[in-house]
Amino acid sequence: MSSTNAAGFPGVAALRQVGRMATLGWEVLKNTPRRPFQRREFIQQCWFFVSVTWLPTALVSIPFGAVISLHLGSLTQQIGAQSFTGAAGALAIIQQASPLITALLVAGAGGSAMCADIGSRTIREEIAAMEVLGVSPIHRLIVPRVLAAVVVSMLLNGLVSVVGVLGGYFFNVVMQGGTPGAYLASFNALAQLPDLWVSEFKALIYGFVAGIVAAYRGLNPSSGPKGVGDAVNQAVVVTFLLLFLVNVVITGIYLQIVPAKGM
Amino acid sequence: MGVEVKVEGLTKSFGRQTIWRDVTLTLPAGEVSVLLGPSGTGKSVFLKSIIGLLRPERGTCVINGTDVCSCSERELYEIRKLLGVLFQDGALFGSMDIYDNVAFPLREHTRKSESEIRRIVGEKMELVGLTGAEHKLPGEISGGMRKRAGLARALVLDPEIILCDEPDSGLDPVRTAYLSQLLIDLNAQLDATILIVTHNINVARTVPDNLGMLFRRELVMFGPREVLLTSDEPVVAQFLGGRRVGPIGMSEEKDQATMDRERAHAEAGHMDAELAEDVRGVPPQLEPTAGLPERMAVRRRKDRVMRMLSSLPAGARQSVLASLTDADRHRYGLTAPLPQRPAPVTSVHGSLHEVARTPRDLGAAFTRRPWGGRR
């Protein structure tokens, strides 16, 4: 059927999507420094993002910290290195778990809400009307939202780190009878400051990717209300896949660049 | 004065489906034009191509010296400041109330004070009859009100070009009449170029200076209103008459068997609902409300039509001549007196031909698509 079409080889449609998404990302970066900055929209969107994500994030990070702590606890007990539970726990939570939880929640709760919002505006022709009124929807709507996603996911990352470590501490000390002093003292035995930086860097990238994917799918839904629903669904799935991929890449590079802390 | 829109050889398709091809027309500056067409012939797509929301594959659309089909994003935003567009459903911003919606272009593009904005918005709201609904959200008002609010927003920057996508759909006949009058009044006040896309026959017959029709992926005709309203082209005649007999079917095309069956049916005395009243001929055009300035477009159009008179089909020429006043005839150097009679005429008289100084067969040669998209 479509052999006469411009599509040359299998997968070209997917590549086209990737290309257009990257273009949108570039447009957003280009429009970010443009005056006047939409401060009001930005603050509203930040608040909106926080309100839909903070509670689920905190609730997810408690069991996460607990699980890591429980696993490590029984392992370290067997090899007699119980006092290092805190060290390993902090490293695992700050460097890996916390950006991932942030990613899941930013994409699943924040990104989906944003995609639905933009998508319904698109099918009601609000976006077209805005363009025709001579106002760039990217500058006016997308930039504040993507920035809000970035800022909030960096803040959420801090929240997850704290709540996760506290959860780990609680389970280690109260449930497994670990010594509070040892947990705290070994805290910085393995973890180091660059771990925190890379964690925040990941959160920044995750927030940006989640924002761009949600905006892209929201701006290009297939027609009708069902199209918006599908767009939201796809936005979440695509964001998850991208974020895990990005995580592998960043972690790989980080481990090559920053030497592990010697003891 | 408004700005001319010059469309040449425009072709648009989605994938392999051609929407229309090779559309060539010029919206004369400051005049009101209507683009007709059965549902699904790409009228809205055409409108969106003019405002640069869709990029056609081929052709140009020049507004104020800029081709919106190939210009940069920045140029496009500049051009759009000249445009006021009324979308089919009003396209209001759902998160803002009506007042903020109408004030939006003023806040974005001007440095007017809040009190000045309030004055302008109040004025436009009164124009479309929405005073008192300022602080409702778009979700809380009816479709007709949304449409009128959308029009108020389109007008707030005093645009040079006003484009309306089906201003009458979802409105009752009374409100449609008010809206038609409003558009004519606006044209008198702003002298803006107006394009209305519709399939309302009444609007098409009484509002525009120029009339065009899209059908089967091309522009059937575009020209002064007399040309379409007196046309013998089957598609145009069928559409304006609202009949079933003719080339337009329920789905876009119609096969010969269906056509024959329907013709036999009609000849047997069966009438379509719309046929009860004969709506052919050229009815008088809407005038601006008393007290408003005269429409400058009327004079400009008359000059233009008189220049091209010799190339018009006989019926249209007849109708144009019949619509001239004594002063007009003097102005255009037509001395022969015209017989007094109402505007719509179907037969051609010798005296008129002497007046127009054209041979009879020239008119006949042009009965088919003289201003159409085909070249």
TrEMBL record, chain A:
Key words of the record: Membrane, Transmembrane, Transmembrane helix
Residues that span the membrane, as ranges: 46-72, 84-107, 146-171, 203-219, 231-257
Taxonomy, superkingdom: Bacteria
Keyword presence, Transmembrane helix: yes
GO cellular component entries: ATP-binding cassette (ABC) transporter complex
Pfam families, alphabetized: MlaE
GO MF assignments: phospholipid transporter activity
Keyword match Transmembrane helix: yes
Entry-linked InterPro entries: Permease_MalE (IPR030802)
Identification of the protein by name: ABC transporter permease
Source organism (scientific name): Gandjariella thermophila
Taxonomy of the source species: Bacteria, Bacillati, Actinomycetota, Actinomycetes, Pseudonocardiales
From TrEMBL, chain B:
Species the sequence originates in: Gandjariella thermophila
InterPro entries named among the record's database cross-references: AAA+_ATPase, ABC_transporter-like_ATP-bd, ABC_transporter-like_CS, P-loop_NTPase
Entry annotated with the keyword Transport: yes
GO molecular function, one term: ATP hydrolysis activity
Database matches in Pfam families: ABC_tran (PF00005)
Domain of life, per lineage: Bacteria
ABC transporter domain span: 5-241
Keyword Plastid among UniProt keywords: no
Swiss-Prot/TrEMBL keywords: ATP-binding, Nucleotide-binding, Transport
Name of the protein in its database record: ABC transporter ATP-binding protein
